Amino acid sequence: MKAAVIYGEKELKVQDIDVPEVTDGKVKVKVEWAGICGSDLHIYHHGAILSDEEHPLSGRKPPVVLGHEFAGTVTEIGKNVFNVAVGDNVAIEPLLYCGTCEMCKKGNYHICEISNTGSLGVNDDGGFAEYVVTDAYHIYKLPQNVTLEEGALIEPMSVAHHAVKRSGLKVGQSAAIFGAGPIGLLTLLSAEAAGASETFVIDVSQERLDKAKEMGATYTINPTHEDAVDKIMQITGKGVDVAYEAAGAQPTFVSAIQSLKRAGTITVVAVFGNEITFDSNIMFGKEASMQWSAAYPNSFSEVINLISSGKLDVKQVITKRIKLDDIVKDGLDLLAEDKSQAKILVSPN
């Protein structure tokens, strides 16, 4: 089968590899669509996350098939698989976890003590391929009214959904999203679905701000043209109830803190490439809360239901569809340069 295999920094090859055998507890999925994530960009352009050591659960290390946001159709199942059947359209939750450590037993399998945030597409073969064979626990059946394009967006939508749940955003409260990349835009959708009365989206890309406005943002702010914190304070008088840091940059982190009202909450969704600093006295003086949001435990079913019910229109973030052969030129390289792009979907067929 054809697959995009990552070997290391700037070393990705679209090549033919063998389709794994379907053994007990395994499911074979014909991939229809796979999304390019920001972490895929960091992996390809900077070699981030990749490890020379075998993962403790998968036993794999690079080279592996890249891609962790994907959906397709079940074509074969092994013995002792009961959650899906051949012909089902499915989405794949890529997290690797042991199921037996303290965190897993508490339901926090996304921070499994053994896996250490391991994932298909990083620590085992992922979705930029014609087929994926993986354990049944990764597989979620899609309702008939949820398309496979939407299925490929369930993973990033779950990141945003989990962040909004952790933030405690309540109906009628205000929210600011710093960063309007795919996760920032999906966080906007999730905040709207949770009942935010007023939303601010902050980004240096006007194209991304235009997309946020299309998706319902109450206000969009370009910090290269005006001070984002001053603007938020002018409009709200006191600041926002919740701020989401979805850019992963020192300036936006500080601005998110400054934009909070007293007793507000900042939730960090992004991964930072470097250490960050802040004036803790600002948080102290507001008695504000700060938290990080990693991945999405127990979120896939909820997000699938929200999409199926029409409460989340995730298709809005799709800006381009490409073939697997063109994943570098029209995907990984383009996303690093063209800020008008949000979510690019890849078809391996």
From TrEMBL:
<feature type="domain" description="Enoyl reductase (ER)">
    <location>
        <begin position="8"/>
        <end position="346"/>
    </location>
</feature>
<keyword id="KW-0520">NAD</keyword>
<keyword id="KW-0560">Oxidoreductase</keyword>
<dbReference type="InterPro" id="IPR013149">
    <property type="entry name" value="ADH-like_C"/>
</dbReference>
<dbReference type="InterPro" id="IPR020843">
    <property type="entry name" value="ER"/>
</dbReference>
<dbReference type="InterPro" id="IPR002328">
    <property type="entry name" value="ADH_Zn_CS"/>
</dbReference>
<dbReference type="Pfam" id="PF00107">
    <property type="entry name" value="ADH_zinc_N"/>
</dbReference>
<dbReference type="GO" id="GO:0005737">
    <property type="term" value="C:cytoplasm"/>
</dbReference>
<dbReference type="InterPro" id="IPR011032">
    <property type="entry name" value="GroES-like_sf"/>
</dbReference>
<dbReference type="Pfam" id="PF08240">
    <property type="entry name" value="ADH_N"/>
</dbReference>
<comment type="similarity">
    <text>Belongs to the zinc-containing alcohol dehydrogenase family.</text>
</comment>
<dbReference type="InterPro" id="IPR036291">
    <property type="entry name" value="NAD(P)-bd_dom_sf"/>
</dbReference>
<dbReference type="GO" id="GO:0034079">
    <property type="term" value="P:butanediol biosynthetic process"/>
</dbReference>
<dbReference type="GO" id="GO:0000721">
    <property type="term" value="F:(R,R)-butanediol dehydrogenase activity"/>
</dbReference>
<keyword id="KW-0479">Metal-binding</keyword>
<dbReference type="InterPro" id="IPR013154">
    <property type="entry name" value="ADH-like_N"/>
</dbReference>
<dbReference type="GO" id="GO:0008270">
    <property type="term" value="F:zinc ion binding"/>
</dbReference>
<keyword id="KW-0862">Zinc</keyword>
<protein>
    <submittedName>
        <fullName>Butanediol dehydrogenase</fullName>
    </submittedName>
</protein>
